[in-house]
Design a protein that fits this description.
Keywords: Signal. With 182 residues, this protein is an alpha/beta fold. It has helices at 2-29, 63-79, 92-102, 119-135, 148-155, and strands at 32-37, 83-88, 107-108, 141-146, 164-170, 173-180. It has five helices and six strands; from the N terminus they run αβαβαβαβαββ. A hairpin with a 2-residue loop joins strand 5 and strand 6 (173-180).
């Protein structure tokens, strides 16, 4: 019985490590699209006075989130292929994650904003993100900084704050190549 329990524990702890190894391999290889969930934030709901153009009316990166974003950038710089382009949700937490991690102003893409409640608009957003993924043909990396629900909808994966999911087009959807948690 102890032998089975030990084997089960080894498997449980080995799986996340191999997922990270596969993720880093895909990042080193380049030619892929990276879906990055914004870094850690403070708060659990948007304030009542939310304004997309005013960061002080939004949930923003926490101190730990800013530190996490800088760590993401440092590790990408040391271990990943070159980043060709960064696109981001218009929300400040995503824009700030992109700026702190990659050191430049990302291209804002409204499709990367949190998914709309309206089914037609939601479908437009998903189609636009999938189009970005399908049409990327660079040899480096395209980074899309977005939100949990967008990544879940496209990949079926529920990433942590600051986690990347590396994808490639497959049919009408995507294939997950790996994940890296920071």
């Amino acid at each position: 019985m102890l032998r089975y329990l030990t084997a089960l524990l080894v498997l449980l702890f080995a799986l996340p490590a191999s997922a990270t190894d596969a993720g880093w391999a895909a990042l080193r290889e380049g030619g892929h699209v990276v879906l990055l969930r914004h870094a850690m934030i403070s708060g659990s709901a948007e304030p009542a006075n939310f304004d997309i153009g005013q960061c002080n009316t939004q949930r923003n990166l926490s101190d730990r989130g800013r530190q996490q974003a800088r760590k993401i950038g440092a590790l990408f710089g040391a271990r990943a292929a070159r980043i060709e382009r960064v696109q981001s949700s218009r929300y400040c937490r995503c824009l700030d994650t992109a700026r702190l991690a990659f050191g430049s102003q990302p291209e804002a893409l409204d499709a990367l904003d949190p998914l709309s409640e309206d089914a037609e608009e939601r479908s437009r957003q998903i189609d636009a993100i999938l189009e970005e993924i399908r049409t990327y043909s660079g040899s480096d990396l395209l980074v899309l900084v977005t939100h949990l629900e967008n990544i879940q909808e496209i990949t079926g994966v529920s990433p942590r704050e600051g986690e990347v999911v590396i994808v490639a087009p497959q049919g009408d959807g995507v294939r997950v190549l790996g994940r890296v948690t920071f």
